[in-house]
Each structure stands twice: as C-alpha cells, then as structure tokens.
Automatic annotation (TrEMBL):
PPR repeat ranges per the UniProt record: 236-270, 271-305, 306-340, 341-375, 411-445
Keyword Manganese listed: no
Signal sequence, start to end: none
UniProt protein name: Pentatricopeptide repeat-containing protein
InterPro entries, per the entry: Mito_RNA-Proc/Resp, PPR_rpt, TPR-like_helical_dom_sf
Gene3D superfamilies for this protein: Tetratricopeptide repeat domain
Length: 506
C-alpha cells in the first residue's frame, strides 16, 4: 500500500530482559514527566504560576527532563518568555548546571523571538557559572538568529564579542561564522568576510568545505578549489560532493561525472550524497529515467540509496507530472524499509497545489496522519492555501486542530491564511477559537489578522469577545525596558535598526 508505515524491530535477545523492562519503564515515566512540565509551560502565564505549578507536579527536573522540555518548546513554538523563566528557575538550584544542549536550545528560542538582549544576558550568566557550556555550536545558534535580522557587519561584530565568551576562540568559531553567512546571507558576503578575517585564523579543510558548499556557479567554486590546493589542503569526499553539487545545479553533468572518476582515482569512494546530487542534476536536464537508473547503479559500487536519494528521484518525476512513476519509487522505497518523510509528501502536495486538486491533497494528508508522519510548515501552507482557495473551512479547521494537538507547523504562517478564510466566510466563532488556541501556545497572531477580526466583531456587536481578544494581544506588548532588542526589525534600506543597535550596545 502506498506510503504505508514500515518499521524494523531490532533484535533484543542480546540484552537482558530485565534491562529492557527497566529501560521501557523509565522511558515511559520520563515521557509522562516531560508532558507534565511542558503542559505547565503552555498553561501558565506568570512566573509565580509557573513555579507553583512546577512544584505541584512533583516531577524531579533533571537535565534529561529539561533538555526534552526545551526541545519540545522549540519545535512547538512555545512561549519564549515563560520558557526563559523556566530555564532560570531550574538553573538557580544549588549545585545544578544546565547542559550545553539546554543552553543552546534556550538561546535558539530567544533568538527566534528576537529577544537578543536576553540572549547576551544568558551568555554572560553562562560564562560566569560554567564557561564550558559555550561551544562552537552556541556560536552558530546565536549568529544564525542575529544574521536573520541584522546586517553582515553587525553579525561579524557579534562574532567578535564571542572572543570573551568562548574558551577556545579558534578556527572552529571562524568556520561557524562562515557557515552562518552561507546560510543566512550570501556567498559573496561569506567570501568577503573570509578574505578579511582569514589572516587571524588558520583556514582548514572544514573552512573550504563550508565555502565550497554554498557557491551557485562552477566558476566561483573552481576558484576556491584552486586556492584550497595552493594552500596545501587536501580535499576529501565532502569537498568533491560540493563540487559535484554545484556542477549538477549548473547543468554541467559531464563535469560532475568526471569528478566521480577523479574521486575514484584518489581512492575516495563516492557516497550517497554524491549520487543524490547526480540524481538531482539529471532531473534538471530532463532525464528522470536515467536518474532512476542511478539508484541501481550506485548499488554496484557498494553504496545504497537512502530516503534523500529516493526523494531526489521522486522529485524528478513529480516535476514532469509522471505521478505513476513517482508512486512506484515510493513503493520501492517503502519495500526497502524506508519510511517516507514530510519532504516526500511535499513533492506530491506541490503537484496537487498547482493543479488545484484539493481532494487529492486532502486524501494524502489523511494518509500522512495515519502513517504517523507529521507534516512540516511547507506541507501545512500547501494545504491551507488550497483550502482557502476552495473555501474548505472544515478541512482547514481540522488541519489547525491537528497542528494544535500534535505541535507541528508554524502557527504564525498558517494562521494568517486561516484567519483570512474564516473572516471571508463570516466564521467569527471559529476565528475566535483559533485565536485563543494560538495565544495559549504563546504565539502572537499577526496585527493584520487581529485588525480584520476586530472589524468583523465590531460589525457583529460582539464587544465583550473583542475586548477579551484585545487583552490577549496586549500580553505580547513588552515594555521597552523589558527587552529593548525586541522592537523593530531591520529595515530594507540597509540602515541599522534600533534592534541591532541596542543589541550590539549591550
């Protein structure tokens, strides 16, 4: 059956039965405790309520519990202010130290909400208590969030601030900056920063692999590859994969195949990433059948396809609207013991969206939920936009209900489309319900959506309900002295925003 769930049970006869029973027992208890604590974070609105509720649960807040709770908050887009209070409350216990994972997750949550003042405060607190918690991963997490709203110059200045925070401020930190610029800015920015700062560090293999991975044209990649060899840095499989990828995206497949031969001459075996790039490149030049054959050919070299490789081949057939062949590859993938992921489903959602096939989209979504594969934000956006186009209120509400219950997708992005649909259809009761559910999750509805609901409620003389919603929205307005860095985002003119200026002044 298409997209049925497949799982492989691991043999357990090598582990004592008592050990397995204890492991499952404690795992179950741990999951229950995580759910209790996460429920407290989701249902309380003040620090006092939080502390009292945490005490009443009777849960021992171990490092493992805290790690899992913060992870759940991150992926469910929970309330950042309340989560910070939880983090500090648990960290104030005598003799307790947070893990590096907890610190990085908390910093990510704050950075995503643009609470940069709290980010730097937390880093200073960590340095005083346990500087070893601040790692290269911490640098990447913080710079990644800063780079989204600040200029390259501000990002580099933030990087320099870490010199006083990170125990070993070395090439690994430099690489973290370059990776951030590649992901959040442009390769031109990363190249310029590399040339301006490289004399203060010692560029290594990872440095060049990061830079090579982001180039869009073969000419740029070739230039860096040449510099790499001139500096005596020996390329590895990752280096060649980056070059193969850029050649494939540039539709220069013959050059990509020559690189495969060069790899083998150097006793470097192409891996699944190498072949996945080839599959994608063949799709770009309109050869999906040849790309499917690569799945078979790679096995002859002792390399076996994974979900990403199958997804690349499925994408090629979806682009050409040969859904029968795409379904066949899904069946083959499942037969090999791989479970389709959200990316697999999105390939089909995209086809259904552009062909205005809401029924097939809904059927696929239902199958997805049965299989236990949670949609991601892209899946939700394909669906909710299609439901709005065809005024399918019931389907949109079920999607939203699943998001709230299971914690997947971006509430902010989906709610904007959902509120438009509900207001167009005059469904004020449903709009109010979704609004309140979103607020309970610590997520702020957009001002545009709120204004539209406000107008309709005024016309319907629902003044009490409107007053309640207005009070809910007021909860998200933080006073300037509370966290000055949460004000306006960077403007498009290139001038520094108040946010970035205040962040750097701390």
């Amino acid at each position: 059956m298409f997209l049925r769930r497949c799982s492989v049970e691991s043999p357990s006869n090598c582990v004592p039965l008592s050990t397995l029973i204890l492991h499952r027992l404690f795992s179950s208890n741990s999951n229950d405790d995580v759910q209790k604590v996460f429920g407290v974070l989701s249902s309380t609105s003040t620090p006092e309520q939080l502390k009292q509720s945490l005490k009443s649960t009777g849960v021992f807040l171990s490092n493992d519990i805290i790690d899992q709770v913060l992870k759940r908050v991150r992926f469910s887009h929970g309330n950042p202010s309340q989560t910070l209070e939880f983090f500090r409350y648990t960290g104030r216990r005598k003799g307790f130290y947070h893990t590096a994972f907890s610190l990085d997750t908390m910093l990510y949550i704050l950075g995503r909400s643009r609470m940069f003042g709290h980010v730097w405060d937390l880093l200073i607190e960590a340095r005083r208590k346990d500087q070893a918690l601040i790692t290269v991963r911490t640098v990447m997490v913080v710079l990644g969030r800063i780079a989204k709203v600040c200029s390259v110059r501000q990002t580099v200045e933030s990087f320099r601030k870490f010199r006083k925070l990170v125990p070993d401020f070395d090439t690994n930190c430099f690489n973290a900056l370059l990776r951030t610029l590649c992901q959040e800015k442009s390769m031109t920015d990363a190249r310029n920063v590399y040339h301006s700062l490289k004399h203060g560090f010692r560029p290594n293999l990872q440095t060049f692999n990061i830079l090579l991975s982001g180039w869009k044209t073969p000419q740029d990649a070739d230039g860096f590859f040449k510099e790499m060899k001139e500096m005596g840095v020996t390329p590895d499989v990752v280096t060649y994969n980056s070059l193969v990828d850029v050649y494939c995206k540039g539709r220069e497949i013959e050059k990509a195949y020559k690189l495969l031969d060069e790899m083998r001459d150097r006793d470097l075996s192409p891996d699944v990433i190498t072949y996945t790039c080839i599959i994608g490149g063949l799709g770009l030049i309109g050869q999906p059948d040849k790309a499917r054959n690569v799945l078979k050919e790679m096995k002859e070299y002792g390399c076996f396809p994974d979900v990403a490789a199958y997804n690349a081949a499925i994408r090629n057939f979806c682009i050409t609207k040969r859904l029968g062949d795409a379904y066949g590859l899904v069946e083959e993938m499942v037969g090999k013991g791989f479970s389709p992921n959200a990316t697999t489903y999105n390939l089909f959602f995209r086809v259904f969206y552009w062909s205005n096939d809401w029924q097939s989209s809904w059927n696929l979504y239902m199958r997805m939920m049965v299989e236990g594969c949670l949609p991601n934000t892209q899946s939700c956006m394909f669906l909710v936009r299609l439901f709005k186009r065809y005024e399918k209120v019931d389907m949109a509400m079920q999607l939203w209900g699943d998001m709230v219950e299971k914690g997947f997708g971006s509430y902010t992005l989906v709610s904007d489309v959902l509120f438009d649909l509900l207001c167009d259809m005059g469904k004020l009761g449903e709009a109010e319900k979704c609004f309140l559910e979103m607020v309970e999750k610590g997520q702020k509805p957009s001002n545009v959506s709120f204004r539209r609901i406000k107008v309709l409620m005024e016309l319907a003389n629902r003044h009490e309900a409107l007053q309640s919603l207005t009070q809910k929205m007021a909860m998200f307005k933080r006073p300037l002295h509370h966290d000055q860095s949460t004000v306006s985002p960077i403007d498009t003119s290139g001038s520094l925003s108040t946010q970035c200026q205040l962040m750097m002044a701390k």
